Fold each of these.
Amino acid sequence: SELARKHMITLIEDLNRMKEYKEDTLFLAASIADRYLVNLAVKKANQPCLIRLAIICTLMAAKLE
């Protein structure tokens, strides 16, 4: 849902701020999460835990940068 996604993005923002990552890392993490959720929606799969997804996407974005 839109509200759940908003909470996930807020968590990504908080993690980004706490770890002092670049702003690009924030946008990349949000993009990774959104693309993953779209792929799940196309496959009609169950929604994952958005807290875990936010953490994983933030770490992936930081690693890619």
Note: The chain has a mean pLDDT of 95.
Amino acid sequence: MLFNSLEFAIFLPIVFLLYWFVFDYALRRCKYQLWLQNLFIVIVSYIFYGWWDWRFLLLIAFTSFCSWGSGLLIRQAQNQQPNNTAHRAKCWMILNIVLNLAILGIFKYYDFFVTSFASLFHANSDGLLLKIILPVGISFYTFQALSYSIDVYRKHLEPTKDIVSFFAYVSFFPQLVAGPIERATNLLPQFQRKRTFDYALAVDGMRQILWGLFKKIVVADNCATYVDKIFATYQDQTGSTLLLAAVLFTFQIYGDFSGYSDIAIGTGKLFGIKLMRNFNVPYFSRDIAEFWRRWHISLTTWFRDYVYIPLGGSRPVVPEHVQHPDRYKKWIIVRNTFVIFLISGFWHGANWTFVVWGAYHAFLFLPLILLGKNRKYTNIVAENRWFPSLRECCQMFVTFLLVVIGWIIFRANTISECLDYILRMLTNHPISVPYLTTRAFYIPTFLSIILLCIVEWMTRIKEHEFQLTIKYAWLRWLIYYALIIIIFRCQATGNVQFIYFQF
């Protein structure tokens, strides 16, 4: 069930009305009100997820049950062994991690590795392939389930005995298939306390949903129409057209993924649930380190907390026997940086292009972290000014250009195609007039990108881009209706599926 589909437009109001007027108002005096409310969330979330393929409901239920049970077993082992290393507790945590990653590996990476090894040794792999469908959102809910058992083991969170609230935490339908990847420390407690309808929060959520639909339907889907055509025939295009197509894909993937996140977060607000922010104007970043603090925040912070820091982070502990501690530290930093980016790239899909994309960003990120400049820009650009300085403009332009090149790697089907695309972009009439600009029907797409950039720049210090602080109600409603008309008039032909559903 897509957010931009008619089915979801019918599904959401029905769920909203039942949630607040049946499981809140009608059951207000029932002592099981919260439990029933959470059970309702689980049921509608499973309906939402099963809309794609009901068979995968067993998979998410199994993942949820194992992670819930592991939390109880971990804490039980820790309570039984308070004065030692709680080896048994660690075993339960590792067992749950291995089990979940094994499921993810089989469904997402098994055929890829078999094909890769067979190609390496010039063997036939047809008889070894499973050829199973990748469950939608498996990478997202698997990581969300893993964070729970890890946080319980670290004693950052008390395990819950309420299996219904835990199933609601893993399967909450707004963010189930493409994030944000929530932490149990933030989301689970919200299902364990009474929720009341907050009108202001719901209105803010509706605004965020509206802006997310604009990003997806108007910006991303229209960009996709041209990007798909150009990438499919890139051998016949000029370098300037290829560059413009790469820029359009840069806005397509941002509008697509951040649009989904806005709709998910906004929908969560309708049900009194606050999800974490997933994007924070990443294309206004002044270096790659700042870009990664603003792009897919839930994933980058997940890898930081559960992989990068446990490996030693950027401040590794040097063993006493090491003769050259400075060299050792630099080596560990280099290793950790590449590990985190390579894993992050591989998380996105079973293709070597994603691994190369991760390595590309690791090479860009590495000089900043070795020089201690990876945290240089922690505040938003031109935070107290209308316009950025000339230096900031140059920094944002260079960073944006580097990101565009990275998205070419990400978008390509193979590494050879990626290299060929970049070579043709740089050599085949790179300064000629792009083909796209000669077509009048591309104008709405360019105007929507300009509108996106203007709104995001003006609201860059807000929680989200459509938090309007306009005094006059008539003007706010005029903007709402204008945006709705734009969404309906400028939508691309057919529903273009969200890019991150494949991950």
Note: The mean pLDDT is 87.
Amino acid sequence: MIYLISTAHLRPGTRDACLVHASAIIEASRKEPGCISYDAHASVTDPDRIVLVERWADRAALDAHFQTEHFRAWRAAIAPHVVRREMEVITPAEVTDT
């Protein structure tokens, strides 16, 4: 399993417009093979930042997601509002008590 943490830093005052578009990508992505979870979060400390937290079965599923029409539509819809974007793919580590 892998996680994708995607943070969008937005132009001031555009968060609500971006979140309207988020519902479509969330609904479609959750139906994709390999999608375990897909959620959007609005920052409580920065009104101009949203964070997508996604869990995918593997990198192949995530790469396939990047090729979907709904992903491309999402990126195009919010592009005018995004100042900066950060994406990080992480793998959960096994932590044991010694």
Note: The first helix runs from residue 15 to 30.
